[in-house]
Amino acid sequence: MGSDTNTRFDVTRSTGTLFGRLRQNRWTGLIVNLAPSGFWLGVFFLAPLAVMFFYSFGQRGAFGEVLLGQEYLGLQQYRTFFVPGDATVPEAAWFTVAWLVETLVPFELSLAAQQPTPFVRLMFKSIGYGVVATLVSFLLGYPMAYYIGRLAPKEYQNLLVVLVIVPFWASFLVRIYAIQLLLASNSVLTTALGVLPFYEAGTPLMNSRFAVLLGLVYIWVPFMILPVYSSIEEVDFELQEAAMDLGADRFEAFYHVVFPLSKPGVAAGSILVFIPSAGAYVIPELLGGTDSQMIGNFIADQFGQAGNWPLGAAGAFVLMGVMLLSIAAYQRSGGELL
């Protein structure tokens, strides 16, 4: 009996010593903390992403199946996305540049004999939606963030921040359906707009580019307000007062002192608005028409009705590349601004 007791004591002591050594090892805590999240990201994010990346080099079969044999693998889907017909890559690049110039200039030009692929045009169209939504969100969000962080009474600041967050308490789809009701032909908004000389009362605003842009700004403008508010809250406004004491007027002091100090928040808000706006799917699907579809709708169609998974995967990785470039630009500008 005594020997059994001693044996159990020795096992317990050695086990306690082992756990004590593990607790003292910094790598043990790091592994324990990262293992659940690493498993989740690996199984539900990285693994599907790797499969989709592999699919982007395959081909679509006659019945919609994905062909991944060695003889089918290649860059065909990326060529289909970027290069029209039998054109070469430099010719495709020129077609894209010429089309962008012809689209942006206010007068008619004819620089190239051929247009870029519809997928490239759709990509730049989505980028345009993202840029416009970001600019409008900045024009609406910065004054609101400045008011909350600088001008609003201290006892009301938290309440105003909560009001900015309140829309997130409702479902994303519910808010989109609310915009549909607002833009219907017999809505209060369209009736009120009837007093304007350029708008005929009762004309529906749904299924238009305006509706898509309104939806993007309405959904994502809080992501502009909150980072800008956070930056403005950290600004030392005594610097603005010092600039005014040195002869600058209020606008000059704001432009040369306050606004540069709030640029990190503007950069963060811009990337938070641009990325989901450029890759939007639900908003153009529910609010837009045939002329206001975006790259997200094209990718969804390839995985759905069209049944061309390789082309959809290639489009998804092209979109991901655009997003990564925007994040890299944010990090670069953020580093310089900070």
Automatic annotation (TrEMBL):
Entry keyword set: Cell membrane, Membrane, Transmembrane, Transmembrane helix, Transport
Domain of life: Archaea
Membrane topology qualifier: Multi-pass membrane protein
Subcellular localization, as worded in the UniProt entry: Cell membrane
InterPro entries to which the protein is assigned, alphabetical: MetI-like (IPR000515), MetI-like_sf (IPR035906)
BP term (GO), one: transmembrane transport
Chain segments annotated as transmembrane: 30-55, 127-147, 159-177, 183-199, 211-229, 266-288, 309-330
ABC transmembrane type-1 domain residues: 123-330
Coiled-coil region: none
GO cellular component terms, semicolon-separated: plasma membrane
Primary residence: membrane
PROSITE patterns per record: ABC_TM1
Family: Belongs to the binding-protein-dependent transport system permease family. CysTW subfamily.
Protein's recorded name: Spermidine/putrescine transport system permease protein
